[in-house]
User: Fold this.
Amino acid sequence: MQKILQSHCYLLLYNLVESSIRNGITAIHDVILVEQLTYKDLSPKIKRLWLLNDKSKSFRDSYIKKDNVADNLQELIKSVLEDQMVLLDPSNIPISGNLDAKTIKELIDMYGFFGKLGVATREIDDILNFVVKIRCDLAHGNVSFCDASSQILWSKLVDDKNKLVKYLTHLLNNIDDYIEKKKYRI
Assistant:
């Protein structure tokens, strides 16, 4: 039972990371919605995000007819020219089950909520990558909960948890600062 609990703690840590980041980014999307911002109001990073994640879907598939592409382009141009409100769909946040250090850095760059993160980069990268590895191994049945615990020391688990909480606190504070200073705007 103790071995299973050790392994389960890493699943909980992964869920804490993913839900914290997803909720932080959703807060950015929400404030853009509440302020009813249009394309011209947004920072270049958010404009690009809107185009990449919310609008480019209608242009990606190889089976789309030229007429549909033209219609989609007209709709997109019309929404920009008529100052229609931009909606960032939370389901389009580019997070998918492997939220490792590299992906988190990409999200920070993508949105622009930079700032200190409270834990040395190499150290947090190692922790995040280990958490993702354990999570994936357990989720895909590559190892049992008992076997996964052989890679885990209680002292490392507690230390990893403390550093992750510190890191996420700083990251969420960076998102709060980003929202407070309206960095999603021009």
